[in-house]
Design goal:
This protein is of the alpha+beta class. The chain has two domains: about 35-75 and about 115-220 and about 300-365, 2-Layer Sandwich (Nucleotidyltransferase, domain 5); about 230-295, no CATH class. The protein has helices at about 5-10, 20-30, 35-50, 90-100, 170-180, 200-210, 265-270, 275-280, 295-305, 310-315, 320-330, 340-365, and strands spanning about 60-65, 75-85, 110-120, 125-130, 135-145, 155-160, 190-195, 215, 235, 240-245, 250-255, 260-265, 290. Strands 1, 4, 5, 6, 7 and 8 form a six-stranded mixed sheet that branches. Strands 9-10-11-12-13 form a five-stranded antiparallel sheet. The chain starts with a helix and ends with a helix.
Length: about 375
């Protein structure tokens, strides 16, 4: 019925239109276990690179939730087994303990812990999402990375809705780096930008090992009303002590198996300190601070975020990846999963990302006068 669609597809006014089932049957018979949509997505990336629309130096990553085609009331409660006990950081923890004259900790055997979770009987691949300030129910997540120059989407990865944003982050950054390297007109990635959901020790350590500069929002620590937070203290990396505003040293005590070192003040000094009311918690005689063994990477990220460069790059999140998701949901029906199953929703993600990249290319090249 739409003449514009007929013209675009090359159909005349009286031409018979193919039956709608052709599309669904193609998807079932021809596109199952196919990389067609992924191939199209990367072909458009190559074309964008040929026109110089991808720089590669700065990338932005975020995730958005997509409502699964599943009822929240139709689910089964199943037990999920998970291995616990092993600590990959135990070697570093013991190095710190031994430096302070403490005995090394012994490694623990792996244990199987069980946890119950909701699994949709309609779409088992989706995940039950229950987060603060987010809708509750069965959802998927799209983990998307865009280039800073013209907001070209470099990667789109679909996971279940109960997966933390930071879980696939390093793996996807590695993938994006390979994609950028394969494009001849791009620079190597230097800055990776994301919100506070990615501000954790594993991510920051991984970026440091990859020689990437993180522009990631710092997590705000809630302090007790009327009391100063641990950032009121200064940490001396060389001496491995904290120093309060009164000049007292908080000495190292121990490092736990979880990777946290504790530091304590001298009760005798605290008793006569003028800052006692703002520092010591009610009922305590001293102040105790905890510091993770990889806290230095968080400190570096916080300091970088305070620089003019860091502020400017972080402020562009709303203009890049957040804008990209807004366009997806406003103009491309991306609030809802059109299919069931992670693979099929991934195909939807590739199609939406491809369409957005094509539109962006058309707008930019038209503005530049490229025919």
């Amino acid at each position: 019925h739409n003449m514009a669609y007929r013209w675009f597809l090359g159909f005349g006014i009286t031409t018979k239109i193919p039956d709608h089932s052709i599309f669904s049957q193609n998807r079932i018979r021809r596109f199952t276990d196919s990389t067609l949509f992924e191939d199209i997505f990367y072909e458009i990336l190559k074309q964008a690179d040929q026109y110089g629309l991808i720089k590669g130096k700065i990338v932005y990553t975020d995730s958005t939730h997509i409502r699964a085609d599943a009822s929240n009331s139709k689910y089964s409660s199943v037990e999920e087994e998970k291995l616990t006990g092993r600590n990959n950081d135990l070697e570093r923890i013991n190095t710190i303990r031994e430096r302070h004259g403490h005995k090394p900790l012994k490694s623990k055997e792996d244990k199987l812990e069980t946890k119950r979770k909701k699994v949709s009987t309609t779409d088992p691949d989706s995940g039950y999402m229950n987060r603060d300030r987010k809708p509750e129910g069965f959802y998927y997540l799209d983990h998307r990375t865009v280039d800073s120059s013209y907001n070209i989407i470099l990667d789109t990865y679909v996971s279940a809705g109960n997966v933390h944003d930071a879980t696939p982050y390093l793996e996807r950054i590695d993938h994006v780096r390979e994609v950028v390297k394969s494009l001849p007109n791009t620079q190597e990635i230097k800055y990776t930008c994301a919100d506070a959901g990615y501000f954790n020790n594993k991510v920051l350590l991984g970026l440091k090992e990859r020689h990437l500069t993180p522009i990631i929002g710092a997590v705000r620590h809630h302090k007790k009303p009327g009391k100063d937070s641990k950032y009121w203290f200064t940490y001396d990396l060389i001496e491995d002590v904290y120093v309060c505003k009164a000049g007292q040293l908080l000495e190292y005590q121990t490092t736990t198996r979880e990777g946290y070192s504790s530091y304590e003040s001298d009760p005798e000094v605290c008793r006569s300190c003028e800052h006692k009311e703002q520092c010591i918690f009610d009922g305590a005689t001293k102040r105790t601070l905890r510091r993770h063994i990889y806290e230095e990477y968080k400190d570096e990220a916080r300091e970088l975020l305070k620089t003019e460069k860091g502020k400017a790059l972080y402020a562009r999140r709303k203009e890049t990846v957040e804008r990209s998701f807004a366009d997806s949901k406003t103009h491309h029906g991306y609030r809802y999963a059109r299919y069931r199953g992670c693979d099929k929703v991934q195909s939807q993600a590739y199609l939406v990302a491809t369409i957005q990249n094509i539109k962006k290319m058309a707008l930019v090249l038209d503005g530049l006068g490229v025919k």
